[in-house]
C-alpha cells in the first residue's frame, strides 16, 4: 500500500509538470513574426528559418504560422545579429477572429481558427 501511494504521488507530480510544460513552453500556437534586419543576407537567413518552421509570408517582413515557443526561440537566437530584432506575437483564437484587413486582402490556405 505504501509503494502504491508513493507511485500515485509521483504520477500526480509528473502529470502536473507535463501540464505546466505543455501550457507554458511546448504548446503550439499561432504566431505573427515581424522583423527589422539591417543586412539582406541576415534577413534571408531569418526568412529561411521562418519558412523552415512552416510560417508563411503575409507582408514584406511579416510571417505567420503555428509553432512552439521553444522551436523558434532556439533557432532565431542562434542566427540573429546584435542590432537586428524580431518581434513574435502569439495570438489566441479570439484575437485572430477579430482581425481586420484593409485594402489588399490577405488570403490564407487554411483558417487558423480550427487549430486551437
UniProtKB/TrEMBL annotation:
InterPro entries: CRISPR_associated_Cas2, Virulence_VapD/CRISPR_Cas2. Keywords: Antiviral defense, Endonuclease, Hydrolase, Magnesium, Metal-binding, Nuclease. NCBIfam families: cas2. Pfam families: CRISPR_Cas2 (PF09827). Its cofactor is Mg(2+). The gene is cas2_1. Belongs to the CRISPR-associated endoribonuclease Cas2 protein family. Its EC number is 3.1.-.-. CRISPR (clustered regularly interspaced short palindromic repeat), is an adaptive immune system that provides protection against mobile genetic elements (viruses, transposable elements and conjugative plasmids). CRISPR clusters contain sequences complementary to antecedent mobile elements and target invading nucleic acids. CRISPR clusters are transcribed and processed into CRISPR RNA (crRNA). Functions as a ssRNA-specific endoribonuclease. Involved in the integration of spacer DNA into the CRISPR cassette. Homodimer, forms a heterotetramer with a Cas1 homodimer. It comes from Methanobrevibacter oralis. GO terms for molecular function: hydrolase activity; metal ion binding; RNA endonuclease activity. Mg(2+) binds at residue 36. GO terms for biological process: defense response to virus; maintenance of CRISPR repeat elements. SUPFAM superfamilies: TTP0101/SSO1404-like (SSF143430). This is CRISPR-associated endoribonuclease Cas2.
